[in-house]
Structures are given as structure tokens and as C-alpha cells.
Amino acid sequence: MNASAARQSAATSAITPVSDRGFGVHASEGTELVVDVLGWFTGEPLEAPLSSDLVNTPPARKVTVISDSAMAGVRWNGALDGFQGSNLVFEDRLESCRRLVQYSCRGREGYAPRTAANEIAALPAPGPNDIVVIATGYNDWHERFASDFDVVVDAARRRGFHHIAWVAYRTGVGYHLPGSGASSNYATMNGVLFTRTSQPEYSDVRVWDLDEYTAGSSGWFRSDGVHHTDLGSWAVADWISRQAAAFDDRTCVQPWEPGGEVENPCPDPDPLSGSRGHPDIAAIYGL
Hints:
It is a single chain. By secondary structure, this protein is an alpha/beta fold. It has a single domain (61-284), classed as Rossmann fold, CATH 3.40.50.1110. It is built from 8 helices and 5 strands; from the N terminus they run βαβαβαβαβαααα. Helix 1 crosses helix 6 (230-247) and helix 2 (116-122) packs parallel to helix 3 (145-159). The protein is globular, with a radius of gyration of 21 Å. The N and C termini lie far apart (46 Å).
């Protein structure tokens, strides 16, 4: 049975033999499954032909992260090795001064990068399992964010992405847009994100809530509340890795605490920081 979109409900029926241990059901994607066994046949029960511990490895998944300077610190601060995951391949497109749709400003490295929409259009054709992560928007005005959101999502869909993750913005920060003493309203932008993704037509878009996850964090961000410290770059790379693993119930690569259990499946990290506190990034990565 094949689904044509994320978060789709689908049903089927089949006649299958049931052994003394039951029967196996396997999925190539993260799936919430309900099985109801109805009816029976008479006769001698079957012996199970396979062991009961058969596990299918999730297919390879490429995760492309497109960011502005708020996440470019992962590259600048040497934290790219924090992108980890079982059968996950990370590709970084981390640039400063990137905008979503309007022309980007000139960044730290002396040039204006492609907009997020144009960067997506220039990517190689994705595989069916690949994720594009949009971590851009701090250089954009909130008044046009709703329309820019639709342009970027449409660009990702036209390129062939079936899985889109959008990183929520940190709120209550002191960041000012380049060349302006004004700040955008990132809480308003987050409101658009959550409203849009609650609608069925955006079932292929998920919000990864960095604002919730980093609440109360210490030593991860510089004074503007947006750009990372060295430690924060590793923390955000670790968070992206956990999100990618949790996307379809893969195993976490790192434990939450040094020497702790590596969780399988990896849980959504966003709400956990409120109950567990944040991972000890320095100890986990030997910084």
C-alpha cells in the first residue's frame, strides 16, 4: 500500500496466513499502524517461516539544510560533525544574509547568497525520502512572511520534495535586520507557520520548533539571541540530527545525557527540554 502524501490516512485489506506468532507487517516510512484481524480458516496452524525479530532498516534519507546566518554558525564554528544520524546524509547550504524570496543582502563572506526559493530550485532532484529544512527568515519582514512561506513551499514541491521541515524562529530576541534599526516580529511569523501547517493542504510541511526547544538554554546564543556561540552551534546541529531521526522513528545517534541510553525510536526533542533540561552538549561531543 502506498501513500501519496505525508500524514495521509489509508486503508486496505488482505488475506494472509497467521502463524503461531502472528504475522509481520513492514513499512519503509515512519507509520502509525492499526491492524484488525477478522475471520479465520479451519485446519492445522502454520509454523512461522521467519524469526520474530525481523527489522527493516529505514531507507537512506538526505537532509538538506538551507539557512541564513542564524544557523550558518554551524559551519563557521566547526560544528558540522554535529550533523549525525543512522542512514541519514546531511548537506548544508548555510549562508549569511540569505532571504526567503526577496534579494538577499551581502553576507559575511562578501556576496549575496541565493534566496531560499532559488536555492531550492538549484538543488539536485531529491529522492522520495529526502527532507529540505528551511532555516531562513530572520532577514525578512513579517508583513510579507505569509506570501513568502507559500512561495518557498511551492518551490520545494515543484523541485520534488515530499517532506519539508521549517525551523520556527526564536522570539523576544534583540536582532535587527541588516541595514535597519528595526526588528521583524518573529512571533507573528511563527503564528503563520503553525496556522499554515495545521491545514490539510500543508500536510507535507512540519514545524521544528527551535523557539520551544531552546527556551531557557544557557550559553548557546550571542547577545542578539539569534546567532550561535561555538557551543550553541553544536547544540543546534545536535537538535537538527535528533529532529531528522525522530521524523520517521529512527534511532538517536547520541544519548540525552553522557553515558546514557541511546533512545530508539528517537523522540521529538522540542517538548523534552522543558521536562528533561537540555543535553550536556559539551560532554556528549567532548568539547
